[in-house]
Structure formats: C-alpha cells, structure tokens
Amino acid sequence: MKFTHATAVGAVALATALALSACSGGASGSGTPDAATTKDSAVDYGSLKGTITAGGSSAQANAQAAWTAAFQAQASGVTVDYDKSQGSGGGVTNWLNGSYDFAGTDAGLADEQQTEAKANCGPDGALNLPVYLSGVAIVYNLPGVKLQLSSATVAKIFSLKITTWNDPAIAADNPGQSLPASAITVVSRADGSGTTANFTGYLHDVQPSIWTYPVSTAWPVKGTSGQQGGSGIVNTVTAGTGTIGYADHSSIGTATAAAIQVGTGTDFVEYSAAGATNAFGAAATATPQTKGDLLQKIDYAKITSTDAYPIPLLSYDVVCTTFKDSAQAKLTAAYLGFVASKTGQDVAAKNAGSAPLPEKIQQDVAASLKLIK
Amino acid sequence: MTDNTTARPPLTSNAARSGDSDRGPGALKPGAGTSRASARPGDAVFRWLSTGSAASIMVILAGVALFLIIKALPAIGANWSTNPDLSGGTTAGNASFWQYVAPLIWGTLWSSLIALVLGAPVAIGIALFISHYAPRRLANVLGYLVDLLAAVPSVVFGLWGIFVIRPFIIPFQDWLNEFFGWIPLFAGPVSRTGSTLLAGGIVLAVMILPIITSISREIFLQTPRLHEEAALALGATKWEMIRLAVFPYARSGIVSATLLGLGRALGETMAIALIISPSLIFSVKLITDSANSQTIAANIALNFPESNPLQRDALIATGLALFVISLAVNMVARLVVRRSSGAPRRSRKDRA
Amino acid sequence: MSATATDTVRAEKPQGVPGGGRPSGPRGPGPNAFTSGQLPRFVELYTLGVALLLSGAVFALIGFSIAGCLVTAALIYLVGIGVLSTVVENRRKATDRVVRSLVMIAFLLAMIPLVSTLATVVDHGWASMTWQFITGTGGSVFDPATLKVTVVQGALQAIVGTLIITGIAALISIPIGILTAIYLVEYAQPSQWMPRTVTFLVDVMTGIPSIVAGLFAFALATLIVGPKAFSGFSAAIALSVLMIPIVVRSTEEMLKLVSMDLREASFALGVTKFATIVKVVLPTAIAGIVTGVMLAISRVIGETAPIFIAASFTDNFNANPFGGAMQTLPVMVYTGYKFPSSDIAVSYQSAWGAALLLVLLVVVLNLIARIVARIFSPKGLR
Q1: Residue-number span of the structural domain to which B173 is assigned
Q2: What is the CATH number of the domain that holds B198?
C-alpha cells in the first residue's frame, strides 16, 4: 500500500504517540481499545514482561515483524527481537547455543540437531512448529506476455536446457502469445536460502528426470546470474528484460509472477493464499521427531487439484520443551501461541502476504505449546 | 636497550639526568623547566603506556588469530568427500579444503588487482592535483569532498553499484566484447544484468579511492618546501619538480596508502556480495554473469547464514586464508619500500 | 632595431629553448623574448575545443555515446597537446603539459563517481528527511480492529546506536592506535622483536574481513557473559579490531614525516622526550593523524556484518551498550534493502533515508575533526 506524503504525515501524527508508547515499553496500552477481541487464549498478555530474543529464516521476516508489532501492542511489557539476517542455519546454530529463545527455520531440525537439542532442551527435545505458509513465485519480465509454465518447462528453463524465449516448449504452454527470440536470463540466489531448498525440492519431486540436481539451500546450477537475497532477484528481474527468477511470493512486490501447471494436465494456477493452504493440506505428512513435534514432510508430487498452488513454502519456529527459566518459557509460549492463533495468522496474511495455516495445524500447535515448561 | 644509530635522538635519560645544571636562559618554560622533577616519572609513564598499547595489540591479534585457527582446524582436517555436513550446500563437490579455497583466493586477488589498477593511479593523480595543481581554496574544498566519499558506507556503494553502475555499464561491456572479445578478459557470454566483475571492480576502485587519496595528499603536502623550491629554481618543470622532490619523499607513504586501500579491497564484503554474480571457479573474465571468480569475504557473507557448523568452520578457514594473503601482500610491499629507499630515511633527512 | 631584436632572440637560445623564436620583422613590436619558444597562453583550451569538435564529429558519424565521445576527446587532446608542445617547445615541457592534463583527467574522472554517489544518496534519501524520521524511533502500530500493522519510519534508534557503538570503538582504538604508533616510531629500535611483531600483526590485521572480526568479538563476549551476549559493546569490540590497524598505520606514516630537526631542536633545549612527543611531534603531525583517524571511523561506521553477528538485530530503541541488541544506520540500510516489508517502496525509502543520515553524520564528524586539528596544529603550519 503506497502512502502519499499527506497521508503519511497524517498517519504519522496519529501514530507517533502510540508508537512511542509501544516502543519505549511504557505503561499505557492506550492504542488498543478492544484488546479482548484479539486475545485468543486465557493468557493475560498485559502481565507479561521480558525480552524474547530470536532469529533465523528470512522468509518469515515480514510475518515476524507483523506478529511482533501486534503482540507488543497488547503485551506492552514485552520486547521481541527477531534477527532475520541469520538465515535458517544461523538461527538454529544460535538457538542450539542458547542465544535464542526460538529459531525460525525453513527446513525444520535435522535428526542430529534434534539429538543435540536434547542437551539444551531436556529429554523431551525440541518442537518444530509450523508457523508460516507462503508460496514460491516464478517472477519474470517479458513486457506484453502473460506467462503460463508447465512444470517440465520450469525445470528445463532453470536447468538451462531451454535458452530462448521462443522455444517450442514455452510456446506450447502459451498458445496464442507472441514470444520474442531473445535469450533467457535466469536469476538465482547467490546466498544459501530456504526458498532455494523449497524450489529445488519441488523440481526434484515433480520432474526428477529433467531436474537431476540435488535438493539444497545452495543453488546448484552453474551459469545463472546469482543475486543476494530474494529482493536481489526481484530487483534484477524487474530491471532487466527477458529475465526470470524465483522468490517468496510475499516479497515480489509489483513484479509479475507466472501461473504454474498443477498436476499433469493443462491447468495453470496463480498464487493465492487459499491455494497455498490447500497445497499444504494435500502435500504435508506429519513426521514427528518427538512427542508434540509437528515436523512435516512435503511431497510436491501430491499437489494435483486446481485449487492448490503447486509450489508452497513452509517455515517453522523451533523451540525447546524445557527452558532453564520458566518465566521465559511462559513468555515464549505466549508469543508462539499468538503467532499460531487465528488472529496471528490473519495478521500475517494481511501484512506479510502469507497464507493462514490450516485450522487443524493451528490447533495442533496450540496443543503442543502446552508441553513447554 | 642501547641506541646504536647516530640518527637516534639522545636518550631522554641524558636530558633528565642533567638535572638542574642546564636551567639556563635558554631552557624551555613550563613543560621542561619547572616540572623537571616530575618529568622523569611522567616520561616513564608515557613510555610504558606506549609500550603497553603495542603489547595489547599483540594480545588482541594473537587472540583473533588463535580464535580463527581453533575454529578453522576441524574444517581443514575433515574428509571433504565423505563428511555429510560438507557434501551438501555451498561446500558440495570439493575433495578437500584446498580445492574449495583455491578459486576463492584467486578471486580475491584478481578483484583486488582490478580495483587497484583502476583506482590507485586515479587516486594518486587526485592527491597530486589537490596538493600541487589546484588553487588553494579549491584544494581545501576538494579535500573535504574526497573525504566525504570515505564516509559512504559499503552497503550504499553496493546499492549505488546495483542501481547506477550496472545499467550504465551494459553498453560498454557490449562494446568491449565486440572489439576486444579476442582478449580472454573480455570474452564470453556478455552479461545482460550487469552483475560482472567489471562493475564490481569499478565500485571497489571508487571505494578505495578516498583512502589512498587522503593519505597521499597529506604526505604530498608534507614535502619540504625548500626541496620543491630548490628544484624549481634550477629550472625544473612542475612535473620534474614533483618527480625530483615529492615522489622520493613520499614513496613509502604512497605504498602504505596503497596497501591500506588494498586491505580494504581484499576484505570488502557487502559491495561485492550485492553486485557480482559469483561462481567458484578460476576465471579472468570480466564481463560475464556466469564466470566471475568469487572473493573470500563475499563468499563468507553470502553463505554464513545458511551453513551448518562445520561449513561455518570452513568459511572461517577461508577467512584465515585471507589473513595470510594480506600478510603476504604487506610483506612484499614493505620489502619493495625498503629496497627502493636505500639507506634508512631518518639519516637522510636534512642537512638544511 | 632588427639587429638587436635578432640578437635578443639568439641570446635566448642558451637558456634551453631549442625551438627558437619567431623571425623578427622590421615593423611592429618584435617577438617578446620571454614568451618566444613557448606555446601561446590559452593553447590548452583551444586544443581541448578542437578535440571535442573532432570526437563529436566522429561520433556523429558512427553513433553517439557521451562516454565514448569524452574518452576520445581526452585521447585526442592528450596526443595533440603532446605533439604540439614537443614541436614548438621541447620534450620536457611537453611531458609537463601532458602530465598536467593527466592529473586533471584523473581528478575529473574521480569527481564523476563521487558526484554520482552523493547525488544518488541525496536524491533518494531526501524524501525521508522529515523531523519525525530523524527524532522518532522506528516502529509499528497495530490496529486490532483491522489487523493492519502500520510501519512508522523512524531512525532515532539507529542514530543513537551508531553513535554509541562507534563512540565506544573509537574510545578503545584511538588511544591504543596512536600510542602504538608513537611506540613504533619514537621508542622502538627496528632490530627489536617487539616492534617487528607489532608491525607484522598490524599488517595482517589490515586484511581481516569484517565478518570474522564480528565472530571473534561475539565469541569473546560469550566467554565473558554467557550465551546471550548480543550487545552494543560486543559490536564495538569488533569495530575496534577493524579500526586499530588503520589508525596505527596512518599515524605511523605521519609521525615518520615529522622532520628530525624539530625533535633534535627540542631535545637540544632540554625538553624531555614525553614533552617533545606531546608538544612538538604530535601537533606537527596532527592534521595527518586526524585524517587517519577519520578514515578509520568512516570505514567502520559503515559496517553491517559485525553488527549483525555481535549485536543481533532489533527495531527497538536501546541505549544500553551492555544490554541486548542494538541497531545502527548501515544495518538499517541493509535490512531495508534486503528484507523489505510488504510495502517495498517504503522500505527502500527508509533505507535511503538512513544512508543519507549516515553520510551527514560523517560530514559532521569530519568537520569537528578538522576543527580539532586546526586548534591543536601549531600556528604557521598551514
């Protein structure tokens, strides 16, 4: 939403007092008249005090910012610091060291990490809690063309088997559109990324014969243009012509995203929040590591119905079951409870462009949070 | 501790030892004269302060080096082909640590060389302009402006590189490839996004410019005026005067300035990570997207977040390699300075 | 009359003007003895004009491009003035003219990116320069009725964080750096092991990547404080590790440049070494030392990676260097660009605003530094 200067001044004038009181951790919650309608559980947010230190996945960054703002507005004695620069790997490493109260990660804990976590988190280990759902968008810049891509074409483009826009495979997916003869410039991530892991996972599940590269956080194909950050990809794609890249849908701004084939037919689906939620329901199987754990395995090949977006992206918050400080445990559980609640998911959907988690998962998360002590 | 070179100033203990006997008409006021009794302890205190600072630097650096070595050893010693942590992600496909770090070392040296070749002559030229060619007031203003360039953070240079340099350089790259494509430097599929080593090199050159210029300028300004005027009086042109009087005086300082600039180029992280599309290969190509050698610092910045602990150790090990590189470069430079300036500078100073 | 004129001309020759003067004529003023054998005064401008015209003509034929036109003009000008000068004057003067032109070109070449960078920062960041932005903490406002989170742009937490972290780093590194340089130049013998080791280590330190400095500082802080060691002070330690080599190196060079005469004169008058250093050597070198210090501060004030690693990330206002995460201006720029909120344009806007603030901050610090240098500099030394 773009602000004109005048609206910005007005909003800023209105918001200054509220912002200052919220940010300085002051006493009055004057900006939240209907606090009762936004609380979901019996937790008394007003009585909570302290600081939550966390960090990890940057895919969750905007959602965490929205959750932090909403939570701090109601629990004015609490400060939440989420460091999005650490990445999933860095977040988990810091969390295993004890520097973070929870970590955001796109992949969930590996088995060895779960074992290592037991040293810090007690014998019941750690919980992977799904909190963020979005989709991987294929962004492109071809003026005048509305692109539809089958999964085979996507795999061929991104593995550099197709190199020009007027290739017969692309033309077959887009009947009736005139495609230029220029070269395709594929833009990928130069840094490690959970988005890359999700995207390569999709390609590996759905087109294993064409995409023979491993699933990994590091982009495996040589010869593409590597950029730093999802915003780097979006910038480079929009600045050039004939460019194509992939990014978390919530970060693409005004760039155009292609519609992707779902299943094996001729149905092409654009991204929508409902589409991501449905995709999650179709593709996710629970593979818990410990009691209360909600780790999911995503099989992209299971997404076949037209109301689902074929490339969903899931991100977790991992948290110990046993904290050294029980007040901190209560605080973190309250925050995560808000995050996974209906209100929290709606806040993220509205402000960060994510898709709300399915209801069942929300309830599962709430139940798992009760295990934290 | 004895002093054995004639150029050394007399030991303070001599001056202090002479006590009251030279409180004559020529003796200095307050500092030396009246506080003579406390000059000795003050002197010793100051000496210990300086020595202590030097010692603390040694401790800090030894600490950093130790920290790095301890963290890096597990990665260097691990078996890269079989270790599951190292066979995926950013370190995949390498048989050993040396295979991983070699292209990075090349990339670091190559990009710094480009930056130095593009930036150092221009920087020295500007320093010369400010100190000798520009009118006085203009020189002051220009000095401020160049120092301002040092104020711009590297992230902003990265953004400037992305939004300004990249689109600007694409037609130039096409031109280079068209006419000079037979030179390996300008070969290869020309980038359409501008994320090339040439763009990065230009931005890097602009970043090291203020460091080299500022220090060189200060050094040029310190040339003894007598030497300059003597050269001019003998009929030298301005350039000859600079060659005769300024450069010999400033040689060691210019090398130091260039080294500091090189140090910045070697360690520059953000600008390169934002601008250049990296690959872990040995390459001299300057204008492609897909054949740009990656630098050590940018590689660490890009891959640190998503690395598992052993990969982090590997990245820290590459940081250690960077240490060794800058050490080698610095040593070579100091050797060059010592070799070319002959006798120690101090004894050559002034019979005027 | 003509005889004396040619005599004067001939008399010029032994002074090294082999080109000779123009033949004198019986009418009108004879050739000016002082300017014969030299190119006329504005020859450089004329040559420049001709070069521009020529290259403009060439490019009008083959397709116009401003950069190409300027480069060709410069080349034509250099060649032209060199040849012209060699023919009319002599080789030495030609070299002098060509070098002067090269230096001017270097200067103009450097001005372009300088102006471009500053113009970009000012152009993009100016729109953010509202009073609210500078004095207000960034944050968000949550409206429970619509569930909308409105982001309030504010940079105060970043400004305060920058000043605190850089201030502590400067407080640590400037004294250590200057004192070490004094030790290396004034007290140490080149043959001892300690100055050689210190020089070696300082050389090594110049190449440290900033992210590694951040890791070291965080590890050190973790040893002292425990796992949750994110703090402004840890970041300041990281920055000092980066600053010290620059300060030591440049101060060392400046101190070496102070003439031995001054020191010896001071000792001859009976001044102690300490007083000599503090009252004679340092003030003489102060301008250069201040430049070196400002360079070091400028270098570290713009660092992002060590701040992330050692001081984590936060949007909240925190003025306690020992308590928790702190934000600085370059971190604000970086996160605004790399992790924009769903309103990308507003995030970028905020990032450029922070960049402009940072540049302004360093300008102010620079000015203060120069005033300090002028106060302590001895009179009569520029």
Answers
A1: 104-342
A2: 1.10.3720.10
